[in-house]
UniProtKB/TrEMBL annotation:
<feature type="domain" description="SHS2">
    <location>
        <begin position="7"/>
        <end position="195"/>
    </location>
</feature>
<dbReference type="InterPro" id="IPR043129">
    <property type="entry name" value="ATPase_NBD"/>
</dbReference>
<keyword id="KW-0472">Membrane</keyword>
<dbReference type="Pfam" id="PF14450">
    <property type="entry name" value="FtsA"/>
</dbReference>
<dbReference type="InterPro" id="IPR003494">
    <property type="entry name" value="SHS2_FtsA"/>
</dbReference>
<dbReference type="GO" id="GO:0043093">
    <property type="term" value="P:FtsZ-dependent cytokinesis"/>
</dbReference>
<keyword id="KW-0131">Cell cycle</keyword>
<protein>
    <recommendedName>
        <fullName>Cell division protein FtsA</fullName>
    </recommendedName>
</protein>
<comment type="subunit">
    <text>Self-interacts. Interacts with FtsZ.</text>
</comment>
<comment type="similarity">
    <text>Belongs to the FtsA/MreB family.</text>
</comment>
<dbReference type="Pfam" id="PF02491">
    <property type="entry name" value="SHS2_FTSA"/>
</dbReference>
<keyword id="KW-1003">Cell membrane</keyword>
<dbReference type="GO" id="GO:0009898">
    <property type="term" value="C:cytoplasmic side of plasma membrane"/>
</dbReference>
<dbReference type="InterPro" id="IPR050696">
    <property type="entry name" value="FtsA/MreB"/>
</dbReference>
<dbReference type="InterPro" id="IPR020823">
    <property type="entry name" value="Cell_div_FtsA"/>
</dbReference>
<comment type="function">
    <text>Cell division protein that is involved in the assembly of the Z ring. May serve as a membrane anchor for the Z ring.</text>
</comment>
<dbReference type="GO" id="GO:0032153">
    <property type="term" value="C:cell division site"/>
</dbReference>
Amino acid sequence: MEQGNYSVGLDIGTTKIVAIIGKKNEYGKIEILGIGKSKSLGVHRGVVNNITQTIKSIQQAVEQAETNSGLKIGSVVVGIAGQHIRSLQHSDYITRKDSEEVINEDDLDSLVNQVYKLIMLPGEEIIHVLPQEYKVDGQAEIKEPIGMYGGRLEANFHVVVGQVSSIKNVGRCIKSAGLDLGNITLEPLASADAVLSMEEKEAGVALIDIGGGTTDLAIFKDGIIRHTAVIPFGGGVITEDIKEGCSIIEKQAESLKVRFGSAWPGENKDNEIVSIQGLRGREPKEITLKNLSKIIHARVVEIIEQVYVEIKNYGHDEQKKKLIAGIVLTGGGSQLKHLKQLVEYITGMDTRIGYPNEHLAGDSDEEVASPLYATAVGLLMNAIRKEERKSAINKNKIKKEEEPVMAGFEEEVKVNQPMKERKSVFDRWSEKLKDFLDNAE
C-alpha cells in the first residue's frame, strides 16, 4: 500500500465505540495512526436500540481518531454481533455441465450462491457463507478444488445468519454519522484475526471474546472456522449483579469490579473490606471482598458454562475435533483477575489471554495492545485486506491494458491472465446492503 493509504475499523460495542486508523508498514505489520474511543450509549447486548445516541457516539469516536491522527475518515469496516446471530452447518452441491473442464472460480461462486438461496426464518438474512471442505466426485477433504477435474462439486458450509433489521440499523447509523460502509464482519471473526496465530487455528482453538454486552465465540480447527456463537451476556451483567447484590449505583459497581473484582472467591480473606461512599448524606457502605468475588464468580461461571455448551455442541469431545490449543480469552472482560484459572478449572482446557499485538508494529501504543481492542484491531485488519485486494485488482487491470496481444498468441494470453478477482460473498452482500440503504432515504 502507498504511503497515503490508510484504513479504518469501527467497533460498535455495548460499552464503548472504538474507531481505529492504521496501515501496513514495510514489514507487513500494522501501524496504528490514530484511535478514538467514546462511551456507547445506544447499544444493548450488541444490538443498536437507540439510533440517535449511537450516531452521536460514533461521531465522537471518529472525531477523536481524526484529531489524534490528523487524517480524515471516509469508509469504515464495522463489526456485527448481538444475540440475533446464529450459525448452522449446511452441505450443498452442483453438477457441472462439462466434467472435461477443470473446476474454476465460477463453479465455486455458483455453489456459494446456491447456499445464499436457502430459505431462512422471516426477518433473517445470511451474513457469511464460509466453505469448510470440498468434495469432488465423492473424493473428500479437499481444501482447494480449483484446477481439478470432476462432475459433481459439493462442500460443507458454515453459514452465519443474522436479523435483517439489526444489520440495517447498523448501516443506517454509519451513514447518518457521515461515513461510508466499507464492509460488515462478524465480530468474533475479527477478534480471531487479531489475537490467534496460524498454529493455534491449525491445532484447534476456541476464541472467547468477553465484551460488555455479549460474549462471542469462534472455534477453529485445521485452519478453518468451524463454529461461531454469540451469547447475550458479558461484563455488563456482572456489574448489574454487583449493583443489585451490594445495593450501590452502577458507577460504583463498575469501579469495584475493575479494581477489586476476582472470579475466584477463595482468594479473599473475610476481613478484607472496601468502604463505599453513601449517597448524599447517607452513611458509607462496607462491602467485603469475599462477598464481591462470590457475586462475580456466580455470574462468570454461568457465562463460561454457556460457552462450554457451545464448545461441546461443536464436538470437542470427539478425538478428531479436539481443540489442542485450548481456549484464548480476549475482550475487556478477559481482564478480570483469576479468570484464566477459573476457565481452566471449569473446562479442563489450556487457556491464555489473547492480546491483539500479534500483527501490530513493534512501536505501537501499549494501550492498543490491550484485549479491550481485539475486535477493533481485527476490523482494521479486515479493512486493510479489503484495500489490498482493491489495489491488486486495479494493478491487474492496468497491466492487462498495457499488454500487447499478438494475434497468434491470443489463446495463450488468455490462459496466463490473472484470474478475475472473485468478489467475496461478503462484498456482494455489502453492496446489496448499500443499495438498500441508498434507496431507503
